[in-house]
C-alpha cells in the first residue's frame, strides 16, 4: 500500500529562471528562440520549450558559456519531464561539464525526483543526500522532506521518516501526504488515538478521503469496538476496491465472531477466501469454532485441526474443542491427541487442567500408550492439581495403569519418583516390583530378581504379593543351591497363600526337590506326595513328581513301592514316561524279575526315540551278558556302538563286548573290543580294566611277550608293579583332596601327574587338580589344567570340564578360548536344551572377541546347527547383519534384519525392526515405513528405545505429508511417555516439535 499511495502523488517541480546578463550577445534569431524557450519552460510547455531551446543553441556563440548552461540545464529538465530515456544521462553530463554551475543543486534535486518516479529509492536517497537543503526554495524543501520521509518509511525507519514529515507545514499542498504516513506510523505502533485523529482529518482529503475510512474501521476493530465494525463494514465493502474488500471481509468475520454471532463469520470468511484471502491458522480457528458453536461438529473438525500449530494459546483452544468433536464421533484416539495439545499450563489454566485429565483418562482407556504415557500423564495431573475434585479419580486411574503396564522397569521408576504415595500407589508399586522381579528372573538376572522380590515383600500392602514374592525367592535360592533358604521361603509362602493359587502346589513340588537334593528322602517323598494330592491333572509336573517319589523309595530300597510310582508315571505319559520305564526296568532287575526287565528295555529300544534310548540299549546288552546270553548281548551292543557314537556309555559297551566275545571264545574280537577302550581313554580306569582283560587273553595263549609288545605300542603302562605304584600314589593324593586340603592336594596331584605321565588315573588327577586350583583362586592354572584334561580325549569328566573351562575363560576375558570350549561342549551335551545353552555361550564369546571374520563364520556354523536354539541363532544372525552393514552389504544385512524383526520381544528383534523401518523411510517408501511402525507398536515390545526411534521417523513421515497435527501428536506422545529422559530420545522429539512451531 505504501508504494501504491506514493505513485498517486503529483510530482511538482519549481525551477529558477534567469535573464541573460552575462556573456557575448546572442544572434538575433538565437536570442528570440531563447526568450520564447524560457517563457514556454516557465509555463511547463516542455515540448515547445525544448524546440525553441534547441533552435537557440544552434545560434549561440561558442564562448557564451553562461547562455549554454541555461540552455543545457533547461533541455535536461525538459527531457526528464517528457520521460526521455536520455534525461538521466543529460543531467549527469551537465554536472560534469559545469561542475561549478549554479544549476547543479536544482539538477541534483530533480535527479532525485526522477529516481523516485522510477521507484529507484536507493539512488534517490544517495542523490538527495548530496542536495543542499537550505539552497532549495520552500516548495522544493517540502518535496524533499516528503520524498526522504517516504524513503525512510519504506525502510521501516519510522523515527527518521517522522523527522522529515514533521517539517511539512499544515498549509503545504503536501501536508495530506505527510499526515497520511504519520497516521499510518501511529496506527502500526498501536497509537490508535493519534492515528484516529489523523485519519479522521484525512476524511476530507482529496487524495486520502477514500482510504481513511478503512483505517478508521481497523482502529475500531483493534480497540474492540466490534459493533461499530459490523454496523459500518457492509457499506465500506460495497464501496471498496477488490483488495480492500478482501481485508474488510476478514475484519467483519472476526468482529461477528467476537460478538458471539457465530453464523455470520462463515459467509464473510467464505467471501474472504473467494476474493484471494489466505486461510491461516486464525482464520481456520474462527471458521472451525463458529461451526462448532453452531453444532456442525463434523465440519468444524478439519478447520480446527488446521488451526493447530505452534505451541501457543490458539493451538490450545483449537485442539481442546477439536477433541470434543472427535469424542462426539467416537474417535478416542484422535480426541486423546487433541487433548494432549491443549494441556499446556502456560496458557488457559482451566482448559489445561481439563485437557490434561482427559488426556490421561483416554490414554488409559486406550491401553496406556506405547511408552506408558497414561502413567506419566496421570502422575503429572495429580502433582499439578492436588486439590482438584478429580484428583482421586486420577489416582485410581493411575493405580490401574500401573497394574496394566508391562514395562515394569519404566513403571517402577515412575512410581518410585512419586513424593508421597498413598496406599493405592504403594499397592501398585508392590505389584510392579513383584513383576519386575519375575521379568528379571526370566531374563536370567537372578540377583536383580531377588532384590526386587525382597523389596516387593517388604512393601507389604498386599498379602498375596508378599506370599508370591516369597515363593519366587525360594526359586532363586534353589537355583543357587541354597536349599535351606529355599525351604524357608517356600514354607513362608505356604503359610500365607490360599490353596487355590497355582503356586501353592508348586511350593510343595519345589520343596520336594530341595529335600531330594539334600538326600533327605523321607521329607522329599512327603513333599512330592502333598503336591500330587493338590495336583491331580495329568501333566509333566505330575509325571515328574511320581518319578521322584519312586526315586525316594528306590533310594530307600523299597523297590515294590518304587515300582508302583514308576508305573503311575508311565501311565501319566509325557517326557517323564521314558525315565519311568527305564527306572522300572532297572528296579525289576534288582528284584530278580529279569524277564520283565528285559521286556521293558526291549520296548524302549524298539521305540527308537527318547532321552533314555542309549541308557536302555546299553542296559539291555549288559543284562543279556549278565544272564550269560552272550550272543544276544553282542547283537545289542554292536548295534549300540554303531548307532550311538556320542553316548557316554560307548566305552563301557566296548568293555562289555570284550567280555562277551571272550566268553564266546572269539578272542580276536574280544581283543579288538578291549583295544577300543584303551585307545579311547588310555589314561582312565576303564583302560586299566580293559588292559587286564587283554593281558588275560595273551597269557591264556602263552604269549606274554605279545602282551608287553601291545602295552608298549599302545603307550600304556604294562608293568603290574608300576601299575600298582600308580594306583597307590593316586589313592594317596585323592585322600588329601577328599579331605578338603586343596593346597596340599594340588601338590600331591601335580606330583602324581609328573611321576606317571601315562598313568591310569591321569584324567581323575587333572580334574581334581583343576578343582584345587579353582578353590585356591589360581584361575590361570585351573584353566591350563582343564584345557589339558579336555585335550586328552573324551572321558567321564569332559562335559563337566568344558562347562567350567568355558565359564572361567569368559570371566577372565579369554574370549576365543571360551568360544572354543563352548563349541566343543555343544557337541557333547546330550539334550537339546543343554546344547542350546552351550551354543549361546559360543555366540557370546565369539562376539566378545571382536573378530569380524570369526563372527561371520560362527553365525554360519550356528545357522547350520540343528540344536543351536533360538537365542544363539538370533544373537549370531544379528551380529552378522551388523558386520554386513558396516562392510556395505546393505541388502544382505537388511534381509537378516527383516527375519529378526518378526520377534520384537527380543532386543535384537526390536533393533532390527527399527533398521527395517529406517531403510524404508530412507528409500522413500514412507507408506511401508508407516505400516511397519504400527505393526511394531502393536506387538507390544518391551524395548521402548527402538520403538521411540521408529515413532520419531513416523512423525517425520507426517511432516513430509504436510500433516503437522499428526506429526506433533506423534512427537508429543514420546515427550509425554518415554523414559528415561537422558538418552536423547525426548530431546530429539522436543527439537522436532520446536521446528513445527
From TrEMBL:
Domain of life the protein comes from: Bacteria
- Where is the secretion signal located? 1-19
Q: Which PROSITE patterns match?
A: TPR
| The keyword Signal is annotated on this UniProt entry | yes
Q: Which organism is it from?
A: Candidatus Alistipes avicola
SMART domains assigned to the protein according to its UniProt record, in alphabetical order: TPR
Q: What is this protein called in UniProt?
A: Tetratricopeptide repeat protein
| InterPro entries recorded | CellSynth/LPSAsmb/PSIAsmb (IPR051012), TPR-like_helical_dom_sf (IPR011990), TPR_rpt (IPR019734)
The alphabetical list of record keywords is: Repeat, Signal, TPR repeat
Q: What Pfam families is this protein classified in?
A: TPR_16, TPR_6
Amino acid at each position: 500500500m505504501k508504494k501504491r499511495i506514493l505513485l498517486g502523488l503529483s510530482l511538482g517541480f519549481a525551477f529558477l529562471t534567469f535573464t541573460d546578463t552575462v556573456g557575448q550577445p546572442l544572434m538575433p534569431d538565437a536570442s528570440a528562440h531563447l526568450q520564447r524557450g524560457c517563457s514556454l519552460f516557465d509555463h511547463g510547455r516542455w515540448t515547445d520549450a525544448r524546440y525553441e531551446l534547441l533552435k537557440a543553441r544552434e545560434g549561440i556563440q561558442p564562448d557564451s558559456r553562461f547562455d549554454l548552461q541555461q540552455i543545457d540545464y533547461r533541455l535536461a529538465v525538459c527531457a526528464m519531464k517528457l520521460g526521455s530515456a536520455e534525461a538521466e544521462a543529460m543531467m549527469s553530463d551537465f554536472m560534469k561539464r559545469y561542475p561549478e554551475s549554479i544549476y547543479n543543486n536544482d539538477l541534483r534535486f530533480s535527479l532525485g525526483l526522477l529516481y523516485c518516479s522510477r521507484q529507484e529509492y536507493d539512488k534517490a536517497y544517495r542523490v538527495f543526500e548530496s542536495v543542499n537543503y537550505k539552497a532549495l526554495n520552500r516548495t522544493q524543501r517540502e518535496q524533499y522532506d516528503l520524498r526522504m520521509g517516504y524513503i525512510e518509511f519504506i525502510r521501516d525507519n519510522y523515527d527518521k521518516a517522522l523527522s522529515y514529515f514533521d517539517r511539512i507545514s499544515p498549509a503545504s499542498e503536501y501536508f495530506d501526504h505527510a499526515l497520511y504516513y504519520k497516521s499510518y506510523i501511529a496506527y502500526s505502533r498501536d497509537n490508535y488515538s493519534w492515528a484516529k485523529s489523523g485519519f479522521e482529518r484525512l476524511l476530507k482529503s482529496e487524495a486520502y478521503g477514500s482510504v481513511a475510512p478503512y483505517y478508521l474501521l481497523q482502529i475500531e476493530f483493534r480497540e474492540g469496538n466490534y459493533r461499530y465494525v459490523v454496523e459500518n463494514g457492509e457499506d465500506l465493502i460495497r464501496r471498496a476496491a477488490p483488495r480492500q474488500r478482501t481485508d474488510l471481509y476478514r475484519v467483519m468475520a472476526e468482529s461477528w465472531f467476537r460478538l458471539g454471532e457465530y453464523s455470520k463469520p462463515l459467509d464473510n470468511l467464505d467471501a474472504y477466501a473467494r476474493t484471494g484471502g489466505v486461510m491461516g491458522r486464525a482464520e481456520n480457528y474462527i471458521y472451525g469454532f463458529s461451526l462448532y458453536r453452531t453444532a456442525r461438529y463434523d465440519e468444524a473438525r478439519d478447520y480446527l485441526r488446521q488451526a493447530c500449530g505452534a505451541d501457543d494459546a490458539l493451538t490450545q483452544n483449537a485442539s481442546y474443542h477439536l477433541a470434543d468433536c472427535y469424542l462426539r464421533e467416537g474417535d478416542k484416539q484422535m480426541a486423546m491427541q487433541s487433548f494432549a495439545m491443549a494441556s499446556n499450563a502456560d496458557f488457559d489454566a482451566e482448559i489445561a487442567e481439563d485437557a490434561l485429565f482427559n488426556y490421561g483418562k483416554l490414554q488409559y482407556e486406550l491401553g496406556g500408550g506405547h511408552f506408558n504415557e497414561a502413567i506419566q500423564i496421570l502422575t503429572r495431573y495429580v502433582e499439578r492439581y492436588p486439590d482438584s475434585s478429580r484428583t482421586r479419580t486420577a489416582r485410581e486411574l493411575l493405580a490401574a495403569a500401573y497394574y496394566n503396564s508391562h514395562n515394569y522397569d519404566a513403571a517402577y521408576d515412575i512410581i518410585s519418583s512419586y513424593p508421597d504415595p498413598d496406599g493405592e500407589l504403594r499397592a501398585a508399586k508392590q505389584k510392579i516390583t513383584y513383576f519386575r522381579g519375575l521379568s528379571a528372573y526370566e531374563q536370567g538376572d537372578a540377583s536383580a530378581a531377588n532384590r526386587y522380590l525382597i523389596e516387593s515383600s517388604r512393601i507389604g500392602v498386599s498379602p498375596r504379593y508378599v506370599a508370591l514374592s516369597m515363593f519366587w525367592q525360594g526359586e532363586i535360592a534353589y537355583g543357587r543351591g541354597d536349599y535351606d533358604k529355599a525351604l524357608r521361603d517356600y514354607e513362608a509362602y505356604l503359610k500365607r497363600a490360599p490353596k487355590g493359587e497355582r503356586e501353592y502346589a508348586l511350593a510343595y513340588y519345589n520343596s520336594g526337590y530341595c529335600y531330594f537334593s539334600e538326600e533327605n528322602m523321607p521329607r522329599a517323598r512327603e513333599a512330592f506326595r502333598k503336591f500330587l494330592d493338590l495336583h491331580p491333572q495329568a501333566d509333566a509336573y505330575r509325571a515328574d513328581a511320581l518319578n521322584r517319589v519312586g526315586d525316594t523309595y528306590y533310594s530307600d530300597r523299597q523297590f515294590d513301592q518304587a515300582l508302583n510310582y514308576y508305573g503311575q508315571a508311565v501311565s501319566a505319559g509325557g517326557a517323564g514316561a521314558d525315565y519311568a520305564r527305564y527306572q522300572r526296568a532297572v528296579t525289576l532287575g534288582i528284584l530278580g524279575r529279569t524277564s520283565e526287565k528285559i521286556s521293558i528295555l526291549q520296548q524302549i529300544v524298539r521305540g527308537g526315540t527318547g532321552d533314555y534310548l542309549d541308557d536302555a540299549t546299553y542296559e539291555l546288552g549288559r543284562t543279556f551278558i549278565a544272564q550269560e546270553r552272550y550272543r544276544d548281548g553282542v547283537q545289542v551292543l554292536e548295534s549300540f556302538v554303531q548307532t550311538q557314537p556320542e553316548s557316554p556309555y560307548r566305552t563301557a559297551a566296548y568293555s562289555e563286548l570284550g567280555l562277551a566275545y571272550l566268553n564266546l571264545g572269539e578272542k580276536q574280537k574280544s581283543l579288538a573290543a578291549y583295544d577300543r577302550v584303551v585307545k579311547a581313554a588310555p589314561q582312565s580306569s576303564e583302560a586299566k580294566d580293559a588292559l587286564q582283560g587283554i593281558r588275560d587273553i595273551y597269557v591264556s595263549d602263552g604269549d606274554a611277550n605279545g602282551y608287553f609288545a601291545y602295552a608298549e605300542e599302545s603307550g600304556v603302562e604294562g608293568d603290574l608293579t608300576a601299575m600298582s605304584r600308580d594306583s597307590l600314589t593316586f589313592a594317596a593324593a585323592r585322600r588329601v583332596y577328599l579331605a578338603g586340603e586343596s593346597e596340599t592336594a594340588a601338590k600331591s596331584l601335580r606330583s602324581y601327574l609328573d611321576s606317571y605321565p601315562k598313568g591310569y588315573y591321569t584324567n581323575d588327577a587333572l580334574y581334581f587338580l583343576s578343582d584345587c586350583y579353582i578353590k585356591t583362586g589360581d584361575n590361570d592354572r585351573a584353566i591350563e589344567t582343564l584345557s589339558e584334561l579336555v585335550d586328552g580325549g573324551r572321558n567321564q569328566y569332559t562335559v563337566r570340564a568344558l562347562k567350567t573351562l568355558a565359564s572361567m575363560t569368559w570371566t577372565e576375558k579369554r574370549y576365543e578360548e571360551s568360544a572354543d570350549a563352548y563349541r566343543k561342549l555343544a557337541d557333547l551335551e546330550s539334550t537339546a536344551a543343554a546344547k542350546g545353552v552351550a551354543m549361546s555361550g559360543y555366540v557370546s564369546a565369539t562376539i566378545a572377541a571382536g573378530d569380524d571374520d570369526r563372527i561371520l563364520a560362527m553365525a554360519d556354523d550356528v545357522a547350520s546347527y540343528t540344536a543351536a536354539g533360538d537365542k544363539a541363532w538370533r544373537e549370531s544372525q544379528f551380529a552378522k547383519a551388523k558386520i554386513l552393514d558396516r562392510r556395505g552389504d546393505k541388502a544382505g544385512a537388511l534381509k537378516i534384519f527383516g527375519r529378526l524383526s518378526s520377534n520384537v520381544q527380543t532386543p535384537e528383534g526390536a533393533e532390527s525392526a527399527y533398521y527395517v523401518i529406517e531403510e524404508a523411510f530412507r528409500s522413500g517408501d514412507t507408506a511401508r515405513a508407516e505400516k511397519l511402525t504400527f505393526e511394531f507398536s502393536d506387538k507390544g515390545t518391551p524395548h521402548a528405545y527402538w520403538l521411540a526411534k521408529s515413532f520419531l521417523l513416523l512423525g517425520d513421515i507426517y511432516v513430509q505429508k504436510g500433516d503437522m497435527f499428526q506429526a506433533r501428536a506423534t512427537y508429543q506422545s514420546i515427550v509425554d511417555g518415554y523414559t528415561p529422559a537422558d538418552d536423547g530420545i525426548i530431546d530429539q522429539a522436543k527439537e522436532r516439535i520446536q521446528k513445527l512451531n
